[in-house]
Structure to design on (332 residues):
């Protein structure tokens, strides 16, 4: 027997939910939980089996649209100190494997919403399109729709990705685990990729006019990035200023201002804006801060050397960087 999985650890609980879907077999999941190919011979087999059954019942499965599946409470198995040890030795439990019981986590409750959300994301990204094609969209949670859109987009299925994302954005937008700021930007970008730039522009302008569950400065930020990408610096100017007025301490807004000044060959102003973006990124969590600094550094160096923002060959990679940058999130 190896090291049984400790389901009191949130990250392990998430991994177990993912395994429950990927393995799709209670016996296989039991062995995974016990870390033992011969789990059936373990004195604690019935506990591992109990965990496997509970996880399978609660896991966000494709056929349910990855919706929550609360399971009816079932009391876990118990072994009294004076009961026969389940290993079959004939000894009392307290004289045999009782001490080993302490090495295994015997608690399992319903996963928190955050655990479910993370597990759902990991499950969807690990499934093939042959499985996702069978998922009933009408049952999907908003998070599942967005993650499925990302999966289809990754595989080049742009039309399906756009349809899924539009369905999510047209919904009530109440899911706290859906980062609307990010997905709104992706929808506009994917419309451009589909040759529908005018529709992407209309979408963002309509979002700004009819704000739903998102702040105006966030949409202004997306409009600024959209117009910069399109080379429409005069239009971008308005939205960069709007974003900065709405959230002056957001580093990405200052990065956009740097891009704007850079595009107009206003070198000193571009450097100032980039440096301000770097300074403000220090308020981010370590990983987000590192990403933001990396994003700004190359542009800053170009501005200092009075070089164009990107060469024609680098345009695609710059677009990818801008896409990832919108994932940088702060509490606002």
């Amino acid at each position: 027997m190896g090291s049984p999985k400790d389901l009191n650890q949130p990250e392990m609980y998430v991994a177990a939910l993912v395994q429950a879907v990927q393995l799709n077999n209670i016996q296989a999941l039991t062995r995974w939980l016990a870390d033992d190919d011969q789990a059936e011979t373990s004195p604690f087999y019935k506990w591992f089996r109990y965990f496997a059954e509970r996880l399978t019942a609660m896991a966000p499965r494709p056929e349910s649209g990855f919706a929550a599946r609360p399971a009816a409470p079932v009391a876990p198995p118990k072994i009294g100190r004076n009961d026969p040890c389940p290993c079959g030795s004939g000894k009392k439990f307290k004289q045999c494997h009782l001490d080993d019981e302490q090495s295994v986590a015997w608690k399992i409750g319903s996963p928190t919403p955050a655990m479910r959300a993370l597990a759902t994301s990991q499950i969807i990204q690990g499934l093939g399109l042959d499985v996702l094609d069978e998922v009933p969209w009408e049952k999907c949670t908003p998070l599942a729709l967005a993650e499925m859109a990302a999966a289809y987009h990754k595989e080049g299925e742009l039309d399906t990705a756009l349809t899924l994302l539009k369905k999510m954005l047209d919904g009530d937008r109440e899911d706290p685990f859906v980062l609307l700021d990010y997905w709104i930007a992706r929808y506009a970008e994917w419309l451009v990729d589909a040759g529908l730039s005018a529709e992407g522009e209309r979408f963002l302008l309509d979002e700004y006019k009819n704000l739903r569950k998102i702040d105006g400065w966030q949409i202004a930020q997306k409009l600024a990035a959209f117009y910069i990408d399109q080379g429409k610096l005069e239009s971008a100017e308005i939205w960069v200023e709007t974003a900065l007025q709405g959230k002056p301490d957001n580093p990405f807004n200052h990065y956009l201002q740097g891009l704007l000044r850079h595009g107009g060959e206003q070198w000193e102003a571009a450097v100032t804006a980039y440096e301000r973006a770097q300074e403000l990124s220090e308020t981010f969590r370590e990983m987000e801060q590192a990403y933001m600094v990396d994003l700004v550094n190359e542009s800053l160096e170009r501005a200092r050397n009075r070089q164009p923002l990107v060469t024609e060959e680098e345009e695609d990679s710059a677009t990818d960087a801008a896409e990832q940058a919108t994932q940088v999130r702060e509490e606002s």
